[in-house]
Amino acid sequence: MERFCGFGLLLLGCFLMSGASLVLHSANPPSVCKSCDPRPGNCMSQHCSSNCDVSQTCPNPQDVCAAVWWREDGVVTLETMCHDPTQPLYGVMLEDVSTSDCLLTSKYVRGRDVRLCACTEDECNERVLLSKPSIPDQTKSFLEKIKRPNIFPELCKFCDIRSTTCNGTGICESSCDITAICTSPDEVCVSAWRRNDGNTVVETVCHDPALPFHGQYLQSVDYDSDRCLMKQVKSLENFYICSCNSEECNDKLIFTDTSSPDEEKKEVLPVLLVTLVPLLITVLVIVSFFYWYHVCRQLKVIDHKRKGMDSETYAIIGHEDNRSDSSSTNANNLNHNTELLPIHLDSVVGKGRFSEVYRAKLKQGVTGVGEPFQTVAVKIFPYEEYISWKTEWEIFSDVELRHENILHFLTAEDRKVERQYWLITAYHELGNLQEFLSRHIVSWEELCRLAGSMVRGVAHLHSEQTTCGRAKVPIVHRDLKSSNVLVKTDLTCCLCDFGLSLQLDSAMSPEELANSGQVGTARYMAPEVLESRMDLENTESFKQADVYSMALVLWEITSRCNVIGDVREYKPPFGTLRDHPCIDSMKDHVIRDRQRPEMPSTWNSHTGVQLLSSTIEECWDHDPESRLTAQCVVERLNDISSMIDVLPISSEQKTSEDSGI
Fold first, then answer.
1. Which of 54, 81, 53 is nearest to 66 (CA)?
2. Cα 23 from Cα 528, distance rounded (Å)
3. Helix, strand or coil for residue 9?
């Protein structure tokens, strides 16, 4: 009997425990969390919104809502997810996962500052809170005694560059509504004020004093202060910098005059005596230069008009040529205006993997052209393709990129309402070179104009200096093909679509270059790109791959010229292959079989085409080191064009041209 009772009590206990377990399990249903891949976040003074529109029911009851925050190149990025708190997140174990708010804590992961948070309420990771740990009074006293800087990252205003009404006197507000936690405890709050060609801007950032800021090193006597005292940068009249080391101290810009009147009087006379004569000489040189520049530009426009340039092209080119460098700098930046440009989208004129291109109308007064509306092109990226938009915008933002054979860039916009990123450029109604060649047969003169202008654009990309001799960062296109070349109404070309382009900074390591990957269109890839065997120790190898692709485009133009005899229907390079050949197919054709596009024997009937064919063959040589440079091709084409102009035309060539073949 006692055994029976004991057994019964044991069963009753097991039943009660299992029942309690069921109650507890049912009391903790799975969480519902925001779950989105990395995307730009909208940050206010104390919090950031994830901009995530995807909610997920977590797979495990113990999961919590989590978020990861980091900043790169001034852009805040947020990733949201469900997370098992017993497992590491980005290699870090979360410390407090029981709160209802997602409060960011700072961790260093692989040498980079990453902030993480977790919380238990449904969708509580939709908004993450920025925080800065408070320092106990005893710790503050100890740090002051041992003269150590603050061990926690500073809170600073961080809006990068914004327009301002501050006139550089008294005390000004930065008007920045973004407060950021600095990446490192060593960073301090910094502001800069400058005026250029009537435009006044204020820059607010976090900055490490060990590194130069706009070429200037900060002084410890300045950034140890809790006030941002503006000081003029030596040799720059309208450029002031201040730094400080307390929360949001770079919000107030304090302009003071630290020199005494007596000192100023002593300095003025010798400065005037020393600088007066050189200044007068400099002014005369500058005036002479601009006079020469203006005369040459006018002669160039007149020459275009004599060659038959239509009115639309004349309006666009004339407008571009008369822009000053300062206006180009402003145009090549992101449009920070609160009001977006007045643009009406007409129709889609092109589609790619990451974006769509629209023909659009820009309202009068924006570009300065006299028509009620100016036709422009708008390249639209969805929010998910932020990286593609950012890459192309950064290439266009280099003012030294501006060239008549590079697509003219107007501005970039973040269209938050539509959740789209826009790039706004000039519009060319003849479309891309592939479309143009499929519809038209060209003369020898038109071949020279199309090919010469396209090659000049590539040479400008690759060059380390502009035509005026200014220093320039060389750029490689990495996706040169006829569909990425636009045709203007005067039958010159300009390069476009820089989404895969790369700036060849001399400081880039082979590892950074290797991360750029095997990119481009398989049909136009150089052999070394197809095999992934580029010499990453030498940045010239990227230019050599561009030259190979350029040679294929030159072949396309030549194949549609009426001086070669029988002009066949347009086909892209390696036209016997399918529309979109894969890399393996191109390897077999280009590397194993050493095939190149066909050059019929009739191409030797015209001296110019024969010489051009020889140049093309040197450009698509299997050995990258044996290929010509783009600048060398420019000079070759100039020589060929000049030579053909003075050579007598043979009866066979004359008959071919007269027959319109």
1. 81
2. 65
3. helix
Output the CA torsion 625→628→632→635 (10° steps): 160
Q: What is the pLDDT of residue 96?
A: 78
The predicted-structure confidence for 104-146, as pLDDT tens digits, reads as follows 887 766 656 688 899 999 999 998 887 544 444 544 444 444 4
Backbone angles phi, psi at 273, to 5 degrees: -65, -40
Secondary structure (DSSP) of 205-274: EEE-TTS-BTTBPPPHHHHTSSS-EEEEPTT-TTEEEEEE-STTGGGEEEE---S-HHHHHHHHHHHHHH
CB-CB neighbours of 490 under 10 Å: 17
Token pair recorded at residue 660: 């319109």
DSSP 124: G
Residues 314 and 317: their CA atoms lie apart, in Å, by 5
Residue 5: band (very low, low, confident or very high) from pLDDT cuts 50, 70, 90: very low
Residue tagged active-site, from 63, 222, 251, 479:
479
Per the structure block, which two tokens stand in for 595? Answer: 């095939």
Altogether, the residues listed in the chain come to a count of: 661
Confidence category of residue 18, pLDDT binned at 50, 70, 90: very low
Compute and round to an integer the Cα radius of gyration of the chain.
32
pTM, whole model, 2 decimals?
A: 0.51
Cα–Cα dist 130/103, whole Å: 7
Distance CA 241, CA 201 (A): 12
What phi, psi does 370 have (nearest 5°)?
Answer: -75, -20
Q: Which residue has the higher pLDDT, 467 or 191?
A: 191
| Joined tokens for residue 168 | 């550089």
Instruction: Look up residue 471 and give its DSSP letter.
Output: B
Active site residue 479: yes
Indicate if the pLDDT at residue 420 is higher than 60.
yes
Q: Which amino acid is at 490?
A: D
Which whole-number Å values give the CA distances from 343 to 208, 376, 428, in the listed order? Answer: 41, 9, 17
